[in-house]
Amino acid sequence: MKRAVVIFSGGQDSTTCLVQALNQYDEIHCLTFDYKQRHREEINIADKIASELKVHTHKILDITVLNTLTISSLTCSDISVPNHMESTNCIPNTFVPGRNILFLTLSSIYAYKVKAEVIITGICETDFSGYPDCREEFIKSFNKIINLAISSNIRFETPLMHLNKAEIWALAYYWNKFSLIKENTLTCYNGIIGDGCGYCSACYLRSKGLNIFLKNQNKILQKIKFKNNLK
């Protein structure tokens, strides 16, 4: 039996990964992390979607210690989420230091327990916001460290790593979950479901990608099929 653990936030990217994984693996275990994030409504959204899609298990892990250790607009209510128009050469304040390290570490421990061969995450370096832990170099390096640490052969899968947001929308369309992802996921840093606030960088990238996909649907669908070896 092919088992996978999906790091699942209830947002566009992780939900797209989940609907694809459900078509590729026999047993799916979802992990959602509660770190008292500003957009923590995503936890409820994740629970609803996991239930609707009938995953094997869905666990919500309390890692609120992360909130006490980091300085980020996603963990500190007195720091404003920046407008997507605000340009900077620095890492944006929406970056949560160590978040992906912790997510992948805990997911690996859980995968070891349930005998899952794969951990799937929606990390992407194409349309990312300058987060250092969204780079493929980090994922590959950390995967090696994890397997050395727990003497395993767990594989980190990042199906969206080299896709832009338009192609991610195309992938959702391919798996017949376009409406579910458009209407019921939460990507917005300010915690607004669906189209979001239209203000933060997450909403901007989501909206921009959607518009590009809708204008070039057939072309992008063909491209995504080729990139992901889909029929």
Automatic annotation (TrEMBL):
Zn(2+) binds at residues 188, 197, 200, 203. Keywords: ATP-binding, Ligase, Metal-binding, Nucleotide-binding, Queuosine biosynthesis, Zinc. It comes from the Bacteria. It catalyses: 7-carboxy-7-carbaguanine + NH4(+) + 2 ATP = 7-cyano-7-carbaguanine + 2 AMP + 2 diphosphate + 2 H(+). Binds 1 zinc ion per subunit. The keyword Lipid biosynthesis does not apply. Its EC number is 6.3.4.20. CDD domains: QueC-like. Its cofactor is Zn(2+). Pathway: Purine metabolism; 7-cyano-7-deazaguanine biosynthesis. Pfam families: QueC. One of its GO terms (biological process) is tRNA queuosine(34) biosynthetic process. Gene3D superfamilies: HUPs. GO terms for molecular function: ATP binding; ligase activity, forming carbon-nitrogen bonds; zinc ion binding. It is an enzyme of class 6 (ligase). ATP binds at residues 8-18. Belongs to the QueC family. Catalyzes the ATP-dependent conversion of 7-carboxy-7-deazaguanine (CDG) to 7-cyano-7-deazaguanine (preQ(0)). This is 7-cyano-7-deazaguanine synthase. The lineage of its organism: Bacteria, Pseudomonadati, Pseudomonadota, Gammaproteobacteria, Enterobacterales.
